[in-house]
Write a structure and sequence with these properties.
Number of strands: 2
Radius of gyration: 31 Å
Strand order of the largest sheet: 1-2
Order of helices and strands: HHEEHHHHHHHHHHHH
Largest sheet: 2 strands, antiparallel
């Protein structure tokens, strides 16, 4: 009787799912760590697939057809691509594109490199002001830039022709000749994108360790020698990035020449400055019965950009060795 009276009552049995709750929480935690990164980056791939990959594949499919936007289309294989080789307008647009690209990209990168090196100097005051000021042209509307430059390059009342007249030079018909129209459009591109490239190169320069410059100064190297022996070699990855971006933009040049021509898609009376992008628009959008050929021009632009980017990469990689 005494033993039974002092015996402790049995403890209640644990609920049946008490041991499974920690395991379930651990399983959910593992699934979250494993799959949540894919969910975070999924919006980018969804948007890229809808507005990037699908249009590219659709354009490639159109380029293989005799595509009429208002009628039927028939499969013709690579006939649109073979037609490019005998199309004088395509080669004219290709020459114009490379000409404007050379006049805009080379001076643009050289001047951006010089300005970035100047803004990277320690003795320069009000650096933030100058960095903001040099980036301002990039935020201005392209249409506004084209309107202003169009007024500057007017034949009768333009500022540049007035300045040329002061030194005895005849008026230049800027949009009537190939070289003059190339120069005018290239100046618009340079004015708008020099500041953008300057800030990218400046960011690359600021990532270079300062110890290298201090050691070079101790060894007696001047600023010019430091620039060529330290800054330029250490800046090659950034330079490659800027060159590839400039190549992509130069091969797709459309808005500046179109506005310079006052909306004339053929780029002057004799196609003096029609670019590849303008010719693609003419064939693929304005001429509805040649949409397939316009798609072939678009893919030709894409392949040219890929080849030029690969060439730039190989050149930089070879010089880096």
């Amino acid at each position: 009787m005494s033993l039974s009276a002092t015996t402790a009552p049995p403890s209640p049995a644990p609920p049946p799912d008490a041991g499974s709750r920690p395991r379930r929480g651990l399983r959910l935690n593992r699934l979250d760590l494993k799959y949540s990164p894919y969910l975070y980056i999924a919006p980018f791939f969804l948007i890229f697939g809808a507005f990037g990959l699908y249009p590219m594949l659709r354009t490639a499919w159109m380029s293989l057809h005799d595509w009429d936007m208002i009628g039927d289309h028939s499969f013709i294989g690579i006939d649109n691509y073979t037609r490019l080789f005998s199309d004088d307008y395509f080669w004219n647009a290709l020459v114009n594109t490379f000409g404007i690209f050379a006049l805009s990209t080379i001076p643009q990168l050289l001047l951006a490199l010089f300005l970035a090196n100047l803004l990277n100097r320690t003795f320069l005051r009000a650096k933030t002001f100058f960095r903001m000021a040099i980036f301002m042209p990039n935020v201005v509307s392209v249409a506004a830039v084209a309107i202003v430059f169009g007024m500057l390059y007017q034949r009768e009342f333009g500022l540049f022709n007035w300045l040329l007249g002061l030194v005895g030079v005849d008026q230049v018909d800027w949009d009537g000749q190939r070289w003059s129209s190339w120069t005018a459009i290239a100046s618009m591109v340079n004015w708008r994108w020099i500041g953008y490239n300057t800030l990218i190169l400046l960011a690359g320069m600021q990532a270079i360790p300062k110890d290298l410059y201090e050691a070079a100064a101790i060894d007696g190297a001047g600023q010019w020698r430091q620039f060529w022996r330290i800054t330029v070699p250490m800046l090659k990855p950034t330079l490659l990035f800027v060159v590839i971006l400039s190549t992509i933009g130069g091969m797709q040049l459309f808005t500046e020449p179109l506005l310079f021509a006052n909306g004339n898609i053929i780029g002057g009376n004799q196609r003096e400055f029609q670019t590849l992008a303008m010719y693609m628009y003419e064939m693929g959008i304005e001429n509805l019965n040649t949409a397939g050929y316009g798609a072939a021009v678009a893919w030709a632009i894409f392949m040219i950009i890929v080849l030029l980017s690969l060439l730039n990469f190989l050149l930089v990689r070879r010089t880096a060795k």
